[in-house]
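User: Teach me something about this protein's shape.
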Amino acid sequence: MRAVVTGGAGFIGSHLCERLLAEGGDVVCVDNFLTSGLHNIEHLMQHPRFRFSYRDVCQGFDVDGPVDAVFHLASPASPTDYLRLPLETLRVGSAGTWNALDLAAAKDARFLLTSTSESYGDPLIHPQTEDYWGNVNPVGPRSVYDEAKRFGEALTMAYRRSRGVDAKIVRIFNTFGPRMRPDDGRAIPTFVRQALQGEPLTVTGDGTQTRSLCYVDDLVGGLVQMMAGEYGGPVNLGNPHEVSMLDLARWIIELTGSTSEIRLVPRPQDDPEKRRPDITLARELLGWEPKTPVELGLRETILNLSDRLSQDAPAGHGTAIPVPEQGLTAGVHS
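Assistant: First, the predicted structure itself:
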């Protein structure tokens, strides 16, 4: 399989590139490093079946030669990033998705949109099933991400129905693992960074709000299985293992051996109260479910973040990093 991965230098995208290469595929990774970094894919740059293109998918793009699959992951994904980059988030969810779908249509390739559990907003049902339409504030600060992904879902289904594109949708629930940025802003990297540096762990609200935590290796396996199947979705991918933010903070303090305390801080507007996927469809249609124990995943994530902090790795966000563009089929380049 020759696959294009937009956002391929990101946290999940880089792991997906690795998985596809490990399974014998060819990978064209497209990214502009707006919220990612070259360090996530540097170890892949000399792989004979890996090609990198520094490009903004919102500007339109093409790929020489055949393409079998387009995985569309490009988007700011953490609240810190999409609140800092609201227009860019809306643009990549709309124009970027449109361009990625156009590429799939032109190449007669399969297409997979990585949507989000944020499509459900602050859900009124628990756990969340794919037929739930959500409870989203369309004008709140988080709407730039929520509605960009919801528009992307509508556009994906329109291409499936009107253009005959073999297009699919997954809704990703909270995912964690190595290569998350220490300044990502999401709970796990924030708590780990604070614990390792001896700072108070900042838990929002009273800490009773919950999330369900899926290790990145499991999530990537679900993406590959979804692309290979016939069902269009949407399909939830996530771990039903649900934990409160207060318990998560305590857990990370224990795993890091930190002496940090927990500090309660104001909770962001429209922050979901509960988040847990119903993965019945994934189990029945894909034969997929997460296998990695959360504690094992947390230990791996802590080790990786500890290494990054000790090396003072670049954050990789804020402005795009100039990288010479030599064409998508010109070979491995940086």
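Now, about its shape. The first helix runs from residue 11 to 22. The two ends are 23 Å apart (CA to CA). If you'd like, I can walk through any region in more detail.
User: That's plenty for now, thanks!
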